[in-house]
Design brief:
This protein is α/β, with parallel strands linked by helices and 396 residues long. It has 2 domains: 2-45 and 290-394, Aspartate Aminotransferase, domain 1; 48-287, Type I PLP-dependent aspartate aminotransferase-like (Major domain) (Aspartate Aminotransferase, domain 2), CATH 3.40.640. It has 15 helices and 12 strands. The protein has helices at residues 7-10, 16-29, 48-59, 72-86, 101-112, 128-135, 155-164, 185-198, 221-224, 256-269, 275-287, 289-311, 335-338, 343-354, 378-394, and strands at residues 35-36, 95-98, 118-122, 139-143, 167-173, 201-205, 232-237, 250-254, 326-330, 356-357, 359-360, 369-373. Strands 2-8-7-6-5-3-4 form a 7-stranded mixed beta sheet, with helices on both faces. The protein has a 3-stranded antiparallel beta sheet with strand order 9-12-11. It has a two-stranded parallel ribbon with strand order 1-10. A hairpin with an 8-residue loop joins strand 11 and strand 12. Helix 4 runs parallel beside helix 11. The chain binds pyridoxal-5'-phosphate. Residues 40, 100-102, 126, 173, 177, 205, 207, 237, 239, 245, 250 line the site of pyridoxal-5'-phosphate.
Length: 396
């Protein structure tokens, strides 16, 4: 059958983070002594009020197809909540509910690009971005960043990239996975103004919007520059903020005509998002703020504990995460002593020798780095750090 596989499908690789997460779980189930910091999901249970809303939906028989772009109640609640949060009016027809934020991003790319269009993707990028761009037939153009700018794209870099080609869309993510970087108000204003000037569309992935720490503030480009609404899709959802990763509900907010096209695509691609999950997500949006803040507070403590110990390990460096739940650390100074040439080999060695599973930075566009996720309970984080320290001292 292999000879029938399309060139497009052959060009797509599975998600490294999902594959490694499965690998950690399989090893643990087989009784191996493995500590995994691979997944990017809260280790908390979905809050009870949200679970109950899902159970109620099942009991009440809300188990049939819904409108393709989602139930009106959820679209209205999201429109109301985000109009208030962003200070920009969104009507319910400007909200599309999908199977997770990942799906919302895919739909946005599908609706915004034609085959061959260029999409700017900034390092360190979420693993799925370049693959999704390729899936819709567009071309990812990678904007390389480095330690000099704190792994952020400056407006100068963006201007240069624009000068090199004809990008149609910028795929932007703050707070960021995999580094937890949060762009400041000034940085976002500068980037947003250039997008307005150049007429480039923006997909702003704000899935970690509520997960910021130590007083760092998340700024939505649309909130800072309301004129951007007309050329932006704001992506968010319930997965990270309300510990609902497996329920699969994401939101896209976009001007009505684009939202209409995204809904039309979804109607033919998947029918509609999961009915039960939409009712649970409605409860999250309406009444989940206290639980959301409780979990955020816990993540903040875990981040502090993890960051302090990580910073004390010699030979590595990392940008301070202001949000999400990741540290992206430059471990390349250890490569020669470890006898490895890149992040994948480094992570494999760490797994083989210490039973610690973390994610290589290569698939995020930075092969010098590895990603730790710190959303785990303190005991697991402590075990992981013990193992990492011991590994580093073996090769120092
Ligand atoms: N965007 C980023 C930056 C993410 O890290 C993730 C999940 O890891 C998503 C989107 C997808 O979220 P969801 O689980 O709602 O599809």
């Amino acid at each position: 059958m292999a000879r029938f596989i399309s060139r497009r499908a052959a060009g797509i690789e599975p998600s490294v983070t999902l594959s490694l997460n499965t690998r950690a779980n399989t090893l643990k189930e087989a009784g191996e002594d493995v500590v995994g910091l691979a997944a990017g999901e809260p280790d908390f249970e979905t809050p009870d009020i949200i679970k109950e809303a899902g159970i109620k939906a099942i009991r009440e028989g809300k188990t049939r197809y819904t409108p393709a772009a989602g139930i009106r109640q959820l679209r209205e609640a999201v429109a109301e909540e985000y109009s208030a949060l962003l200070g920009v009016d969104y009507g319910w027809k400007e909200v599309v509910i999908s199977h997770g934020a990942k799906h919302s991003i895919f739909n946005s790319l599908y609706a915004l690009t034609d085959p061959g269009d260029e999409v700017l993707v900034v390092t360190p990028y979420w693993v799925s971005y370049p693959e999704m761009v390729k899936l819709v037939g567009a071309v990812p153009r990678i904007v390389e960043t480095g330690a000099e700018t704190g792994y952020k794209m400056t407006v100068g870099m963006l201007r240069e990239e624009i000068g090199r080609g004809r990008p149609k869309v910028l795929l932007f993510n703050s707070p960021n996975n995999p580094a937890g970087i949060v762009y400041t108000r000034e940085e976002i204003e500068a980037v947003g103004n250039l997008l307005l000037e150049e007429g480039i569309a923006l997909i702003s992935d704000e899935i970690y919007e509520f997960l910021t720490f130590d007083g760092v503030e998340h700024h939505s480009p649309v909130k800072l520059l309301p004129a951007l609404k007309d050329q932006s899709v704001v992506i968010t959802g319930v997965s990270k903020s309300y510990a609902m990763t497996g329920w699969r509900v994401g939101f896209a907010l976009a001007e009505e005509q684009l939202a209409y096209r995204m809904g039309a695509y979804q109607a033919h691609a998947t029918g509609c998002p999961n009915a039960i999950s939409q009712w649970a997500a409605l409860e999250a949006v309406r009444s989940g703020a206290a639980d959301r803040e409780r979990m955020r507070g816990e993540f903040e403590k875990r981040k502090k504990m993890f960051g302090e110990r990580l910073a004390a390990i010699p030979g590595i460096s990392f940008p301070e995460p202001g949000g999400a739940f990741y540290f992206l650390a430059d471990v390349s100074s250890l490569y020669p002593a470890c006898g490895v040439s890149g992040s994948a080999e480094f992570c494999e060695k760490l797994l083989q020798e210490k039973g610690l599973l973390v994610i290589p930075g290569g698939p995020f566009g930075l092969d010098k780095m590895i990603r730790f996720s710190f959303e785990w309970a303190e005991e697991q984080l402590t075990m992981a750090l013990d193992r990492f320290e011991s590994f580093v001292s073996d090769y120092s």
